[in-house]
Specification:
The protein has two domains: 3-102 and 359-375, 2-Layer Sandwich (Enolase-like, domain 1); 107-348, Alpha-Beta Barrel (TIM Barrel), CATH 3.20.20.120. Helix 10 (229-238) links the parallel strand 7 (219-221) and strand 8. By secondary structure, it is an alpha/beta fold. The strands form two sheets. Strands 4, 5, 6, 7, 8, 9, 10, 11 and 12 form a nine-stranded mixed sheet that branches. Strands 3-2-1-13 form a four-stranded antiparallel sheet. It contains 15 helices and 13 strands. The chain is globular and about 65 Å long.
Length: 376
């Protein structure tokens, strides 16, 4: 089997997504994906990894291809678009392997460790729900659908005003209000994670973390940028709440010192950023050796749901998987052949060989798609 053609596909209504299809001479077509800032990823696939390496190669040599692509870019820095391009290609190659062997990807990763995957909901605007206004109603709605964990980010607005270096007592009180509403409405029935998007300095992060302790939140996510581990070690010792790091860390090499220093008590790589299914599985296995659970970041495109589910299904130390109800409704009927199935707060494992879904034929026939082609 050889790789004969690589396509990159963009749709105007999903400008932050890029799909990658790898064609073979024996029929299987592998599907990968990346997000956001897709143009540099497309350039790398079109100009570096595609014509310069992948065309004509055996797609089943996934590990060899990962290392070869990494070696082609690591001398100049690999931790941005380069790794996202490698990740998208890696997803597509695993999809081909699954199709060729007639197995779902999770089976090829060692088989399932669970029949369903517990999920949490990242609470972007959905229907009439806005966690800054009605976090209590949002929490009750999620509980009614069987989802028992949610993530909100009520501190972000204040961080933007001061660049994360100042938070007044009044602002702290206001930012805590959605957290109070959730606890008052549903008590401990809802696990509550707080996202910070790396906005805060150490001083403010410590104040916020200690203020949140009485609410027993599930975790504190990316309170600061993950580029100063000394600061994070200080923060981890200043609060009893678990820190989770980080979708911003790429490959096992960036996660290793975080684990070695005991900074994170949960890790959350994104398989479309960290190095693909191949690297996501390795990071999860490394975390298991450090007695750490994994909660994969999964707030992107439709294929990320499937790729994350396959790795999560085969990971013994999986804690839960991120989803976003506001995102799921954006593409499932119009873009992919089969959506992920979520029932009673659990994601069902993907069915069928490979990834378990593909881009719809009617979607691929649209004349407004931007399609790049390498090979023939």
């Amino acid at each position: 089997m050889k790789i004969t053609k690589i396509e990159t596909i963009q749709a105007p209504e999903h400008s932050s997504l890029l799909w990658v299809r790898i064609h073979t001479d024996e029929g299987p077509i592998g599907l990968g994906e990346t997000y956001p800032l897709v143009e540099p990823v497309k350039a790398l696939i079109d100009q570096v990894f595609g014509p310069g390496y992948l065309l004509g190669k055996d797609p089943l040599r996934i590990e060899a291809h990962w290392r070869a692509m990494f070696d082609r870019c690591n001398y100049a820095g690999w931790s941005g678009a380069e790794m996202r391009a490698i990740s998208a290609i890696d997803l597509a190659l695993w999809d081909i392997l699954g199709q060729q062997t007639g197995q779902p990807i999770y089976q090829l990763l060692g088989g399932k460790c669970r029949d369903q995957i517990r999920i949490y909901n990242t609470c972007g605007p959905y229907q009439h729900f806005d966690f800054l206004k009605n976090a209590d109603e949002y929490a009750q709605y999620l509980l009614d659908t069987g989802i028992q964990a949610m993530k909100i980010w009520p501190f972000d607005g204040y961080a933007r005003e001061s660049h994360g270096h100042y938070l007044s007592p009044g602002e702290l009180k206001k930012a805590l209000e959605p957290v109070r509403k959730v606890r008052k409405a549903v008590g401990d029935a809802m696990d509550l994670a707080i996202e910070f998007h790396g906005h805060w300095s150490l001083n403010c992060a410590v104040r916020i973390a200690q203020a949140l302790e009485e609410y027993e939140v599930m975790w504190l996510e990316d309170m600061m940028q993950p580029d100063n581990l000394d600061a994070y070690e200080h923060l981890s010792k200043a609060t009893r709440l678990p820190l989770i790091l980080s979708e911003r860390l790429l490959t096992r090499y960036q996660f290793l010192p975080v684990m070695q220093r005991g900074i994170a008590r949960i890790v959350n790589p994104d398989v479309e950023w960290c190095g693909g299914i191949s690297e996501g599985k390795k990071i999860a296995t490394m975390a298991e050796a450090y007695q750490l659970p994994v909660a994969f970041h999964n707030y992107g495109g439709p294929i990320l749901n499937f790729a994350s589910a396959h790795v999560a299904a085969s990971t013994p130390n999986m804690m839960m998987l991120e989803t976003g109800r506001n995102l799921l409704a954006n593409w499932e009927d119009a873009v992919i052949t089969r959506p992920v199935v979520i029932e009673d707060g659990r994601m069902t494992l993907p069915e069928g060989p490979g990834m378990g879904t593909a881009l719809r034929e009617d979607f691929l026939k649209r004349d407004d798609l931007v399609v790049g082609t390498i090979g023939r």
